[in-house]
From TrEMBL:
Protein name, entry field: DNA-3-methyladenine glycosylase
EC number(s) from the headed UniProt entry: 3.2.2.20
Gene3D superfamilies reported in the protein's UniProt record: Hypothetical protein, domain 2
Pfam families xrefs: Adenine_glyco
Keyword Zinc (UniProt): yes
InterPro entries, A to Z: Adenine_glyco, DNA-3mA_glycosylase, DNA_glycosylase
């Protein structure tokens, strides 16, 4: 699929996909593609990408605040402590996607994240080991996976994580700044590149 831009409300070019709603536009302008080193935000995004499977990101973004309230703001240790009563509570929460498998996967993945943090020092240190600067293209063609997302997906699955296929992981990498997939000519492409230049990936 060819990546294209259109003028936003201020007349400046942006990725076409973000112009559907004001929430999409804010997400594009303020978040998407900017590098993130905060474990809570990284875990949140991996969790929400899992919930998105089979749905649109717009659906998940519109419910993001509800998800945060339901899942203890995606604090890893708090979610890891959820039990059956929490699963039952979440299945009754109309503000989120009520899918038992995905709900249980977030809780399970929080426990996997605890083990990963103990090993790598932080979720961020682990995630940024998988950055592939060569993965992003020139902003003209959209892709769904990369060698880096395939490798990270495979490793997470070996560690027991669920709902972390290569496409899900690539969408996570795009959003968290591990690749810059803003369309050529989009104002966000240069802004994301500058943010990445100033960013220092965490290490243990």
């Amino acid at each position: 699929m060819t990546l294209t831009t259109e003028p936003g409300p201020d007349g400046r070019p942006r990725c076409r996909w973000c112009l559907g709603t004001p929430a999409y536009l804010r997400y594009h302008d303020e978040e998407w593609g900017r590098p993130v080193a905060d474990d809570r935000r990284l875990f949140e995004k991996l969790s929400l990408e899992g919930f998105q499977s089979g749905l649109s990101w717009r659906t998940i973004l519109d419910k993001r605040e509800n998800f945060r309230a339901a899942f203890a703001n995606f604090e890893i240790d708090r979610v890891a402590a959820f039990g059956e009563a929490d699963v039952a509570r979440l299945l009754q929460d109309a503000g989120i996607v009520r899918h038992r498998g995905k709900i249980e996967a977030v809780i399970h993945n929080a426990r996997c994240a605890q083990a990963l943090v103990a090993e790598a020092g932080s979720l961020a240190a682990y995630v940024w080991r998988h950055e592939d600067p060569a993965a992003a293209g020139d902003g003209t063609q959209a892709v769904a996976t990369s060698a880096a997302s395939i490798a990270m997906s495979r490793d997470l699955k070996k560690r027991g994580w669920k709902f972390v296929g290569p496409t899900t992981v690539y969408a996570f990498m795009q959003a968290m700044g591990l690749v810059n997939d803003h369309a050529a000519g989009c104002i966000g492409r240069a802004e994301a590149a500058r943010a990445r230049q100033a960013f220092r990936p965490p290490v243990r």
